[in-house]
Amino acid sequence: MRPALKAAPIVFIAAILQGSWFAGISLGRGSAGLLLVTIVSLALLRGSVFGAGAGFAAGFCYDVSVFGQLGLTSLLLTLAGFWTGRYGETTGRDRAHAPFLSVAVITILYELGGLFVRFLLGQSAPAWQLLFGALPGELLLNLILTAPVYVLCRWVVRKRSDEERAIEVRLRA
């Protein structure tokens, strides 16, 4: 079965749970980001293109489920999936700390990117409240979610095999 068909229910359920149940789980002012952790896990396992596609689909599902501004979450999760996938394809292969490092870095970049996009759109963007109020709690909650979500995604989707990876091309002069 194709990995996209296996990942679709995970992404859909994560988007629904993020909009309903995980939005209420908070530490300080930061709430748990199940959807972000799911996209990071899938991108590490399957690569940048898969991560970007899953990020877009997850963001769209989330925005629709909470009647949010369409496109904001999709943009941020697409970028998060793509760059995490690139890390997984190049540097982060088969390293035990890769999911935790990726979730930590992407959580910070996701929040800063959201702050930047809101600023560009002319919306209220309180940087001090985000950086010193919400971000530490959100970072801790996301790191707690990392291990179980990564194991679940690895069990369902599996890592890319060597045959599925791009073959290196060498040009002879």
- CATH topology (level 3) name: Arp2/3 complex 21 kDa subunit ARPC3
The CATH architecture can be given as Orthogonal Bundle
**Helix-strand sequence:** HEEHHHHH
Count of discrete alpha- or pi-helical segments spanning 4 or more residues:
6
Q: How many angstroms does the end-to-end distance come to?
A: 41 Å
Shape: globular
**Poorly predicted regions:** none
How many separate domains make up the residues?
A: 1
Q: Count of DSSP E strands?
A: 2
Indicate the proportion of strand residues: under 5%
Widest beta sheet: strand line-up:
1-2
Report on this model:
The chain is mainly alpha-helical. It has a single domain, classed as Arp2/3 complex 21 kDa subunit ARPC3 (Orthogonal Bundle), CATH 1.10.1760. Helix content is 71%, strand content 2%. The chain contains 6 helices and 2 strands. It has helices spanning 3-20, 34-46, 48-65, 72-90, 98-120, 127-157; strands at 26-27, 30-31. It has a two-stranded antiparallel ribbon. Strand 1 and strand 2 form a beta hairpin. Helix 2 (34-46) packs antiparallel against helix 3 and helix 2 packs parallel to helix 4 (72-90). The longest helix has 31 residues, at 127-157.
Salient structural properties:
173 residues; mainly alpha; Arp2/3 complex 21 kDa subunit ARPC3
Summarize the structure.
This protein has helices at residues 3-20, 34-46, 48-65, 72-90, 98-120, 127-157; strands at residues 26-27, 30-31. With 173 residues, it is an all-alpha fold. It has a single domain (3-157), classed as Arp2/3 complex 21 kDa subunit ARPC3 (Orthogonal Bundle).
